[in-house]
Q: What sequence folds into this?
């Protein structure tokens, strides 16, 4: 593409960042980054009653966690109100908009009469073609003069060619009687002034597009490329809501999904590249095109999300994984790791990350690295520590005192002791797991011994051999 690509994500700060909004942001980011373009953030904070600084902070935090860095500073739609009003007056001067003095009561009376007569309730203002000389000295709104004949056709990159009959498009209000702009006008002015070339957003905006296009035409502005993406549904095929589980992006961080896995999964939710399910950011940026987005709503599948996250955990570099793990603990409201825990867990990541799909699973498997002596043994594991087993552990400890602490030698010593008691190596694994971790399900006993080191391993064995 010869044109420099500019995309934007434009959330309203009236609540948490919805997972659907996060996917919209991701698609805009991927498309811009894959084409060497610009990805902008606009906070649509014109609803002053519902917009909150906390919600704006949550949006920024969510994008930061998901790794979707935007270019430049966030733009506040509210702060651009004078510019929006300026465009409304310019359309008025061009004869593409008009002053409408109809009151709310008059508009409602028109609609009631239309309903009674079975006509369209789309308001047709008597002021559309009125002589300015007849204008009263009264409050007015500025309405766009929408075409009444023919059709408006939107060539959409996802939905195909979408046609709206112009007699179904109203003369929308652009400027209210108090001089404040409407959302419908503000969006178009902002997108134009920000140089947005591609508007990628939810298909719930499709009908808005038919109205917003009229503003571009009225101002003689270039119309951007539109791509309206289907919404995300729950596993049951119904619109995603809280009854399906988490819908806010921050909840997914607090549930322990790694960001790379979330990016991969959300990209795959409604977009495809052949049969590829698991891919890196670099591949996603290279492959992502609007034509790959399907027209049907995507279904959230937590099992698939977990599987993809597990694959990303396995390939993440240990230092980055530890940093994200600590971010998870903070998001989940859990205590931070101590220096000792960080060191022991960090040394275990090589084998822990290949056996877990989420951070809670990784921490569960890494339990042995997080606990301090004396180890509390859970009930199920305690059953492996009968009198005979404790005796075997007692005979094992002197043999380990002078071991070279390599995996091969540790395996050989434990195997020897097991054989000497007429047991297979597997029979000794249970008591060892209980002594080293206090659990019946753990990583390999030899992996744990190597990480814990000679002194800590012997101390834990001696505690239980007593």
A:
């Amino acid at each position: 593409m010869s044109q420099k690509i500019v995309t934007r994500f434009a959330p309203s700060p009236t609540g948490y960042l919805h997972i659907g909004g996060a996917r919209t942001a991701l698609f805009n980011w991927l498309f811009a980054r894959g084409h060497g373009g610009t990805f902008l953030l606009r906070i649509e904070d014109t609803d002053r009653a519902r917009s909150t600084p906390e919600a704006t902070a949550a949006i920024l935090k969510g994008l930061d966690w998901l790794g979707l860095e935007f270019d430049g500073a966030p733009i506040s739609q509210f702060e651009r109100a004078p510019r929006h009003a300026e465009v409304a007056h310019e359309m008025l001067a061009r004869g593409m908009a008009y002053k409408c003095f109809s009151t709310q009561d008059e508009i409602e009376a028109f609609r009631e009469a239309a309903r009674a007569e079975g006509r369209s309730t789309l308001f047709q203002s008597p002021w559309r073609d009125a002589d300015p000389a007849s204008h009263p000295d009264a409050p007015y709104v500025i309405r766009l003069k929408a075409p009444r004949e023919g059709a408006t056709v939107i060539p959409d990159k996802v939905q195909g060619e979408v046609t709206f009959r112009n007699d179904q498009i109203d003369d929308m209000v652009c400027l209210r009687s108090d001089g404040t702009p409407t959302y419908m006008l503000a969006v178009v002015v902002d997108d134009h002034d920000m140089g947005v070339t591609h508007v990628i957003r939810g298909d719930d905006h499709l009908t808005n597009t038919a109205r917003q296009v009229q503003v571009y035409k009225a101002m003689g502005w270039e119309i951007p490329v539109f791509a309206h993406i289907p919404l995300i549904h729950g596993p049951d095929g119904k619109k995603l809501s809280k009854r399906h589980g988490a819908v806010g992006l921050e909840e997914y961080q607090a549930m322990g999904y790694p960001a790379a896995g979330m990016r991969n999964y959300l990209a795959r939710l409604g977009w495809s590249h052949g049969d590829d399910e698991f891919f890196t950011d670099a591949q996603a940026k290279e492959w992502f095109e609007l034509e790959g987005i399907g027209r049907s709503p995507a279904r959230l599948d937590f099992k698939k999300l977990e599987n993809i996250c597990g694959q990303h955990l396995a390939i993440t570099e240990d230092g980055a994984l530890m940093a994200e793990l600590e971010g998870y603990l903070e998001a989940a409201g859990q205590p931070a790791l101590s220096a000792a825990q960080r060191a022991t867990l960090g040394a275990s990541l090589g084998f822990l990350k290949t056996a877990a799909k989420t951070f809670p699973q990784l921490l569960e498997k890494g339990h042995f690295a997080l606990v301090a002596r004396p180890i509390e043994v859970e009930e199920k594991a305690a059953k492996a520590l009968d009198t005979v087993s404790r005796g075997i552990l007692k005979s094992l400890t002197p043999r380990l005192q002078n071991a070279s602490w390599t995996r091969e030698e540790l395996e050989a010593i434990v195997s020897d002791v097991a054989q000497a008691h007429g047991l297979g190596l597997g029979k000794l694994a249970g008591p060892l797991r209980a002594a080293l971790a206090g659990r019946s399900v753990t990583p390999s006993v030899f992996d744990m011994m190597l990480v814990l080191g000679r002194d800590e391993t012997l101390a834990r064995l001696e505690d239980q051999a007593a």
